[in-house]
Amino acid sequence: MTSPLYAPIGFFLHAAELFNHYQPVWRLLGADAFDIILHGTDHERLETLTLATEAGYRCVESETVIEAGHTYDIVVSNLSMFDHLDQPIIHVLGHRRVRFMYALGKAKHNFADWNRHYDLILCFGPWQAERMKQCSDAVTFQMGYPRYDAYFRQPELLGSCPPGLEGVLAPEKKTVLWLPTWMELSSVTRFADAMAALCDDYNVIVKTHPLSHEAEPQVLEVLGQYPFTAVITTVYDNLALFRCADFVVGDYGGTPFGALYLDKPLLLLNVPAAAEDALTGDSSPDVLLRHDIVNLDEDCRWALPTLLADDALWAEQAGIRQRLRHKYFVNSYGFSAEMAAMALCNLETLLQQG
Q1: Is the CATH number of domain 9-145+332-353 3.30.450.40?
Q2: Where are the beta strands (DSSP E) in the chain?
Q3: What CATH superfamily is the domain 154-328?
Q4: 117-160 residue pLDDT tens
Q5: What is the pTM of this model?
Q6: What are the residue ranges spanned by the domains of the chain?
């Protein structure tokens, strides 16, 4: 519970990429309202600590909190897959537990039975909230997608060059942003050659999955064999990349839905038997997205230039994206962080009202 040594809310971070996911909400809460609880590998902890120190946020190791016997009023996390002794670590760390959804896609992961560990689940929109009822009795609240609020609030930055890529992107070329996932569902090894061939006519930026750097260095080696305009393998805010992208290419997981949320022209790369993967299933939204969004199999990958140049196709896709945005996201574009902060500050009321 509340202690002068700790803030009322603890955000549990096992991966540094979550820093960008939560920061819009942190700015609203204020630095005194929360602690960042460090967990995960030494590499992830150090990266998170470095980012937090630069931003003026306080960090504490998860082990330190547990050893002190402290329990936060609220602990926020994006998943519950870590235990302490015989119980979920979030039960040890927080009196109330809130899941702050990280992504759409990979349904078997996102709707696993560990969702029952939570009291409140902050969802992107109606589809996620309804689907959550099948695996958890937690109260749901539709917040939107806070990490991309600034995309809508600062339209003057659309088309701007991402930090660190000044002088790298050719201004006369359109930009293709490739955001592959990791592990078996990754499109990297199957499509790297065709994606690199686009570099003659496009800027092609590749940003790998945040866990690829440590977990699958061989993927980075594959990318290194080709002359991509830029390859980003470290923690980097996708917001800046989306701002400059004319097209987004994805495969599975959450990033296709980030593009959909921002209404970016989206093309999906297919991996065989994706619906049979342990993280997806045939009803996973990233699998079902192929029913509506233009997509390519590996043996058709050399058709990429033709598809990107098909203006009629993209005009048709614009209407399809609008329908999908209504399905998956609540209409809080530009103020989703306010919605999330409001939910955290009124948690007990939300739980009482159900």
Answers
A1: no
A2: 9-13, 34-38, 59-61, 72-77, 83-84, 87-88, 94-100, 120-123, 139-142, 174-179, 202-207, 230-232, 247-250, 266-269, 295-296
A3: Glycogen Phosphorylase B; (3.40.50.2000)
A4: 999 999 999 999 999 999 999 999 999 999 999 999 999 999 99
A5: 0.94
A6: 9-145+332-353, 154-328
